Amino acid sequence: MLMRTDPFREFDRLAQQVFGSQTPGTWSRPTAMPMDAYRQGDQYVVSFDLPGVAPDAIELDVERNVLTVKAERRPLELGDDVEMQVAERPLGVFSRQLFLGDTLDAERIEARYDAGVLTLRIPIAERAKPRKISIASTDSDRKEINA
């Protein structure tokens, strides 16, 4: 099971609405990225929106049961003769942490980046899947029960 805990996320969202976007290089803390998460069969699928982020600017780290996704949207490389008229897209570092439950297999996470969406597939650990246990008895019959 995925667990999500970020007590400052709503505060950051409110502060950004009140004070507006910060200029590049002055981020006080990484900005959260939107995500969807759902279970599909024997795995969890997590998708992060990262439009405009180059694949080489994305880092995935797992330490103990914490998965960290960090991405950086860099400014466009414009020539000296270009005068920016409107700059509303946020730049800088975006970060998100997910706490992975013990039932997930963090060793076998698969990642794919396509059309600005990073999709992670996190399998459920074999030890967490339901299994049948056979019961030995003094009779010659053996019974199976679900565990």
TrEMBL record:
Positions of the SHSP domain = 26-138
Transmembrane ranges, per UniProt, are: none
Domain of life (superkingdom): Bacteria
- Signal peptide positions on this chain: none
Under the heading PROSITE patterns, the entry gives: SHSP
Q: Which InterPro entries match?
A: A-crystallin/Hsp20_dom, HSP20-like_chaperone, Small_HSP
What family does the database annotate?
Belongs to the small heat shock protein (HSP20) family.
* Protein name (Swiss-Prot/TrEMBL): Hsp20/alpha crystallin family protein
Native species: Kribbella jiaozuonensis
